[in-house]
Write a structure and sequence with these properties.
284 residues; mainly alpha; 13 helices
């Protein structure tokens, strides 16, 4: 190392030490909060998973296929969903698939519930968007494994940390696409609504949201896919689901197990993607 580089490195900014002090402060003073939150989330997720697993697998497959038909009005999609889930049962990965499904649906629901209102707020307030933009850029460029470190420190191992890290990872997508959808509403539509005396709330619910719905639903699709990818990685911090057999396959170089779990993830991703395409033209 040249002298100038040595001099610069000698004045290293102690970011690591500051970070450790910050997390030590949080765990020392707010451990009760993080532990309570983790226990509550774990109880809810374990309860939902136990409920689904207590039902016959064929019954759950039939219910999901029926839901796919109701959402998209496509018997081909319903048949494809049933065949895909039956394939997962055939591979002996039904329990892991249910655990992953519960995590993904819970994470996507919370991410959308938080992300859509934030996106609407940002679309109506330029200062809010300017504040959020660098944060969203950072969240979408951070490596996925970096998210695991603070969540592991604060919440420990288990299914609840997996849910929390998945929500954080997936949330930028609905925020950005909701903002894009609202800001892309044609001005003549807004002017027409104002000309008829619509209030801001009426403009939002009757003009902006219906016009932006396809973009917002694209955000839901992305949110589901991001949640599914992070749920697999979250197996490293104790999250249940299809990530566990993937991790076991990597550790033991178990090619058959890796292929089976990988195909199950692909099937689940396709099913969720097709079912979530509400307001985007559906599936023919």
């Amino acid at each position: 190392m040249d002298p100038i580089s040595q001099w610069i490195a000698g004045w290293k900014i102690p970011i690591g030490r500051w970070g450790r002090q910050f997390f030590d402060f949080l765990t020392t003073n707010f451990a009760w909060f993080f532990d309570s939150l983790a226990r509550g989330l774990s109880a809810v997720l374990d309860g939902l998973t136990g409920l689904l697993l207590s039902l016959p697998a064929i019954a759950v497959v039939a219910l999901i296929a029926a839901l796919a038909y109701v959402l998209q009005r496509s018997w081909k999609l319903a048949l494809g969903v049933a065949v895909g889930l039956l394939f997962i049962i055939n591979q002996g990965l039904w329990k892991e698939t249910v655990e992953t499904l519960v995590l993904v649906v819970a994470a996507a629901t919370v991410s959308m519930a938080l992300g859509v209102p934030i996106g609407i707020w940002a679309a109506h307030n330029e200062r809010v968007y300017r504040f959020l933009q660098p944060i969203l850029d950072l969240m979408q460029t951070l490596p996925t494994f970096v998210y695991l470190i603070p969540v592991l420190i604060l919440f420990g191992l288990g299914v609840a940390p997996g849910l929390i890290v998945t929500i954080i990872f997936a949330m930028p997508a609905p925020i950005r696409l909701t903002w894009l959808g609202i800001t892309s509403v044609p001005k003549p539509m807004l002017e027409a609504g104002e000309a008829f005396g619509a209030t801001k709330r009426q403009l939002l619910w009757k003009v902006e949201l219906p016009s932006a719905l396809p973009t917002i639903m694209a955000g839901l699709t992305q949110c589901i896919m991001l949640s599914l990818s992070m749920v697999v990685i979250a197996a490293l911090i104790g999250a249940n689901g299809l990530g566990k057999p993937v991790v076991r396959a990597l550790n033991s170089v178990n090619i058959p197990l890796g292929l089976e779990a990988g195909l199950a993830i692909v099937v689940l991703a396709i099913i969720l993607d097709r079912m979530a395409r509400i307001g985007q033209g559906g599936v023919k």
